[in-house]
Amino acid sequence: METVATLEKTTLLLNPLIEKEDVKREEEPSCSHQHKQKLSLVSYESLPEFLKHNEFVINYYRSEWPLKDAFLSLFAVHNETLNIWIHLVGFFLFLSLTLSAMTMDPMNANAMKATSQQLANSTNTFLHSNNPVASVQLPMDAITVDMGPATELVANISRWPFYAYLCGAMFCLLMSSTCHLLSCHSKHTSYIMLRLDYAGIISLIVTSFYPLVYYSFACSPFFQSLYITSITVFGVTALLVSLLPAFEKPELRWVRAGLFASMGLSGLVPIVHKTILYADKPEALITTCYEMVMGLFYASGVVVYTTRAPERWLPGKFDLAGQSHQLFHILVIAGAYTHYLAGLVYVSWREVEGC
Ligand SMILES: [Zn+2]
């Protein structure tokens, strides 16, 4: 009996402990439960301040996810999925354009001269074989395209500005994609990623000037150096300004857009200069047309980015698809691709003509 009583006493004594344990288990969820909770998508209100960028996108946020999970969310659906993939596809598009440009033969004027020489020879042979009476020899110079002194310069026309532009575009697209993928991890990661994103935008703008300026002013070294130096200094200054922690504040969206837009708009100076200098050159006019179209794409991108349309009219309706940032990303790729087409014209212009 005594043993039973002791057992009951012990059970009673243990029970409160067991109950406490149970409560404790309910209050502190298991690791896997915690992990699941951490990986669930949350609303704008539950976000920490550093992830609050657009109050018109209401749901499907990843908040402070572990780095590995943030990386794997590349293959999951959330409100950044399309932002990540649009620029990732853009990166691979520019990678393939770069590889094809690297295998592109130089548009060599010497080769063109040889071709026209062959044409002249075959024309003479044709005239003599079909008309034995013909005694008129076509003067070679009348058929051979006269490349003049430029022929010697052709081999020296470098493609580095074109490749620099392609690298700038690839860097911009890859950094943007990575920033959208990993910024949700922590405040520190977000700070680093946003700086890389700004650096990417600045590198795209600066390197866009290189083919324009280098090939347009290939025969005016003073202006070539002046414009290349100016935009590079402007870019480095913008990069330093973008390092300021305040630069990423949502309310400074207009300042960021203004800085990047003014960098782009300063391109009007060499473009107008080129058009005046080579008003009679079709290549100069074609490239100017491309540059105008590119400007339209980028300007539309700035408008969409700053106004946050269409989600401001219907908050929460464009969380997954159709939000302003996705449209902005598409417009950036369209602008960059238009400039690539202009770059092809610049390269062929100078490789054929020299200066
Ligand atoms: Zn973006």
From TrEMBL:
Q: Which domain of life is it from?
A: Eukaryota
Q: Which residues bind Zn(2+)?
A: 180, 325, 329
Q: Where is this chain's protein located in or outside the cell?
A: Membrane
Origin organism is Carex littledalei
The membrane-spanning stretches of this chain are: 82-102, 162-184, 196-214, 226-247, 254-272, 284-306, 327-349
One GO molecular function term of this record is: signaling receptor activity
Where primarily located?
membrane
Q: Name one Pfam family in it.
A: HlyIII
User: Would you tell me the Gene Ontology cellular component terms?
Assistant: membrane
Q: Which UniProt keywords apply?
A: Membrane, Metal-binding, Transmembrane, Transmembrane helix, Zinc
Task: Quote the protein name from its UniProt record.
Answer: Heptahelical transmembrane protein 4-like protein
- Topology relative to the membrane: Multi-pass membrane protein
Q: Where is the signal peptide?
A: none
Q: What biological-process terms (Gene Ontology) are attached?
A: response to hormone; response to sucrose
